[in-house]
TrEMBL record:
InterPro entries with a match to the protein in the record: MFS (IPR011701), MFS_dom (IPR020846), MFS_trans_sf (IPR036259)
Main subcellular location: membrane
PROSITE patterns in alphabetical order: MFS (PS50850)
The organism of origin for this protein: Lentzea waywayandensis
Annotated SUPFAM superfamilies: MFS general substrate transporter
Transmembrane segments: 12-38, 50-73, 85-103, 151-173, 185-204, 239-262, 274-293, 305-324, 330-349, 369-389, 401-418
Protein name (Swiss-Prot/TrEMBL): Putative proline/betaine transporter
Cellular compartments per GO CC: plasma membrane
Length: 433
């Protein structure tokens, strides 16, 4: 490989990691605020339990919008290229988050406050819907031979990196300011910071080149008018299995990242700072272990790793709430750090597995469709369903049963999908300069 090609690949790795981090920063910031702040600012007339449920409902709206973003950005990503669609998605997310930072609360504009909050959450969801699959493809399609999982892991690292950044900014702001000031106006500072961060992301992202796979598709005149229609031709059975195998990781991750904050503070009486610090430390572990898991996937194969990771996810999901319910700080730290270690095993290769379901000329559309619907059915609904179960039963037994069943279903789908999985679709490696 020439030095010029290697330099280009490093730029792509940095650009996909940075852009994904900033998009997930905005998305997770909303989740943290939903668990801790939005019920007071936008739903003050409701009881604490109902207010939390309402706040998580607006959180879920972002996931409902993600398939729409995936469809729109996927279509144009397969028609005009990956690069420009990723630039637009980053801008969209930044605008949505910044406007949340200046949105008046219920006490100022009444019912319009939650309505506008939902509208801006939709904007966030559309932006992330375009980013999620697109950044994965940008890295995957630039990857040198034998390092496809490693490169596809860079945008996946953006998920825990975004969480670490969001929780750190949220934690510092809430620690520096008096509690009343933070609840009143200080929570807006992390959202307003999005404007500056997006500028940094755009500068980095504009410097990367279009992917070799898309360039080859253009050269061979393989661009189709309706790429999603072509992507669906891989068959309903394979689409359904790939969708279902992707659901568990998202569901467990959002119970760990979002619902546990609300449950820990409201039901267990745990200190908010303690939970934020521990979840952030778990995300650091998640971030740091992705290069390890992707290197194993490149050397040993990602299918076996994904299956064993799915088994570990099921076991830890079943144990998670019983561990939290001990109220022992040491045991809770173990429960959360365990999530940080286990979640990345399947998360780091999930995007590459989905991408390999489709040929290069329709890969953005197909990947976006599956990844965003998996996120909706998994992460989007998990905090909402879990809160509803908890409010109805007053215990986490039903929540544990629900999340364990989701993990078992995804594991079964993975076994069936890998048994008849096709040879990975060709991805053109960059040509040496």
């Amino acid at each position: 490989m020439g030095e010029r090609a290697a330099t280009s690949q490093r730029k792509v790795a940095l650009a996909t990691l940075t852009g994904a981090t900033l998009e997930w920063y905005d998305f997770f910031l909303y989740g943290t605020a939903s668990a801790l702040i939005f019920n007071k600012q936008f739903f003050p007339s409701l009881s604490p339990a109902a207010g939390t449920l309402a706040a998580f409902s607006t959180f879920a709206v972002g996931f409902i919008a993600r398939p729409l973003g995936g469809l729109v950005f996927g279509h144009y990503g397969d028609r005009i290229g990956r690069k420009m669609t990723l630039v637009v998605s980053l801008v969209l997310m930044g605008v949505g988050s910044t406007l949340i930072g200046v949105l008046p609360g219920f006490a100022t504009i009444g019912v319009w406050a939650p309505i506008l909050l939902v509208a801006l959450r939709v904007v966030q969801g559309i932006g992330l819907g375009g980013e999620n699959a697109g950044a994965n493809l940008m890295a995957l399609e630039h990857a040198p031979s034998g390092q496809r999982n490693r490169y596809a892991g860079f945008p996946q690292m953006g998920t825990p990196a975004g969480l670490v950044l969001a929780n750190t900014v949220f934690l510092v702001t809430s620690t520096v300011l008096p509690a009343a000031a933070f609840t009143s106006w200080g929570w807006r500072i992390p959202f307003l910071l999005s404007a500056a961060l997006v500028v940094v992301g755009l500068v980095i992202r504009m410097r990367v080149t279009e992917t070799p796979s898309f360039a080859k598709a253009v050269e061979r005149k393989e661009i189709v008018r309706f790429p999603l229609k072509e992507a669906l031709s891989v068959g309903a059975g394979r689409l359904v299995l790939t969708l279902v195998l992707s659901i568990a990781n998202s569901a467990v991750a959002y119970l760990f990242l979002v619902f546990s904050l609300s449950y820990g503070t409201a039901q267990l009486g745990l200190n908010r700072q303690f939970l934020l610090i521990t979840v952030t430390a778990s995300a650091v572990l998640w971030l740091g272990t992705i290069p390890l898991w992707t290197s194993i996937a490149d050397r040993r194969g990602r299918r076996g790793m994904f299956l064993w990771g799915s088994v570990a996810l099921l076991v830890w999901a079943a144990a998670f709430f019983p561990l939290l319910n001990t109220r022992s700080p040491a045991v809770i730290v173990v429960a959360l750090l365990g999530m940080g270690l286990i979640i990345p095993i399947t998360h780091c290769v999930q995007g590459a597995i989905v991408a390999d379901t489709f040929p290069a000329n329709v890969r953005y559309s197909g990947s976006s469709l599956l990844l965003q619907f998996a996120a909706l059915l998994g992460g989007g609904l998990a905090p909402l369903i879990s809160t509803a179960i908890l409010n109805e039963t007053g215990a986490t037994t039903g929540v544990s049963a629900y999340i364990t069943a989701v993990c078992a279903l995804s594991l079964l789908a993975a076994v069936l999908a890998f048994r008849t999985a096709p040879v990975p679709t060709r991805i053109d490696a960059p040509v040496a300069a």
